[in-house]
Write the structure tokens for this entry.
Amino acid sequence: MAKTNGQNGQSAAPDNRCAAEDPSNKRVDPRTNRRGFLQTAGGAAIAASVTGLIPATTLTSVSANAQEIEPNVEIGPSVAKKRAKAALSIRTAAAQRERDLPIVSHPTNGDEELFPNKIGSFSKGLPHNNLGEVDVPAFNTLIHALTTGNAADFESITIGRGVKLTNPQSGIAFAMEGPDSHCLAQRAAPAFSSAEEAGEITENYWMALARDVPFTQYGSSSVIGRAAADLSRLSDFRGPKSSGAVNVANIFRGLTPGDLAGPYISQFLWKDTPFGVERVDRRMRTVVGGVDYLTGYGDWIAVQNGASTPGDAFDPTPRYITNGRDLGQWVHIDVLFQAYFNAMLILFSIGAPRDAGNPYRTSRTQIAFSTLGDPHVASLIASVATPALKAVWYQKWFVHRRLRPEAFAGRVHNHVTHAATYPIHSDVLNSSVLNELFTRNGSYLLPMAFPEGCPTHPAYGAGHATVAGACVTILKAFFDESFVIPNPVEASADGSQLLPYTGAALTVGGELNKLASNVAIGRNFAGVHWRSDATESLKLGEELAIRFLREEKDCFNETANLSVTKFDGTTITI
């Protein structure tokens, strides 16, 4: 009820911000809201007549006495001012909890300070010399803008031939739910001269050479056999191994539980997807096989300087994902949370049980909906993607500024051809992959799957991988990870059809982990990311989602205890 001002007898507006108010403080017409309408002369009678509660013959008498009817009072455990205070308390407590966590450090690999010519730092889109080394004064305009955070300074960055940098200011945007972007950390990226960096570029090279090999034919492919042998001899390669070796069963796969089980591709990238009353056939518009880009030095240097490029060459026949080129193209133009929204729709359609800690799984009287139900899950997948991007964009632009594999391969090319001398680890220089590259393309550049090469933002962390980690964590919290997926499938070698998969059982949790790795490593197949970009950024997204879900849980009336098996195999309860 509104308070009464004792001086003038007029009703004063309630002193809480939950009530509907006219911003100009003018009197609000009661006909513009449900309760006001029912209090208007005749309004209550008309409404009651419509619902059949009051006979039409009584309309006149009820209308005459409408002002004497006490309006309905809302019910619930807290209303009006009490509710506003409770909402403020929840938001304040969440912010204080985040504030009180230990301050994280943001280690870097030291390359930017070590190399005055910035050969270990991202610089695509800025002007470069003929070796692909950035113009240092131009690079400093970028650093100046990142340091000040002033919008005008970002507009003053010196760019090259016109291609623009991708959204550096996103890294300093705030988020209203979950952790602040600056409160999450990643380990330092591998250093330019390290054996780990050499191992990762060697893997990138082999992935490019193996793009057109169907995953189902890895066991019989000679290029895959040579790649496995070469990766096995590296001194610090951190991909999956069996008895200390890379083999045809684990090559190019991720490190999470589920990555090594069954087909390379997750069921959630193959199965037809119900979309309301529609059904989405998962055959995709992919690109022509055998077509790679930026293998000529002139094209490579032009793109480093920000030159525009032509579009893709598309294959006219749609097909299911069958090889690394298809997977790379899938993550070329996807909507960023698309893979996980599709996975959710598939989980709905196969009747995957909800997490055991969801109270509606055992409720006698209720079903879930806007809390802990289907609409809630669907909205969270999109909601968590934005703070995930803000978090990783902070890492990209304001912490690491790691160069892309495309640029590092240019350093390898110039070093091997004696155009320049760089401190590149011998593991890649002694790799047999370099001879194969030169025989095929006449250069040591990384064959790129996309005409434009890599995006115009730094490599580490990876946006796709961070969003994958966040969205998959949401799904694992809401669904029973141990549920076995019925009727699993596998694409034929030509991608024209799906065939029954009859191997080991595939679980929801394992296939969600594999989905996250497929998306993250799919970018590596395209040549735009490194292995550590993928594996470390999955963890970044996972941590963000866990903290995001804790704030969601604070808002529930229900008691929920959702479990998540993390990418490292440990289980937590939210």
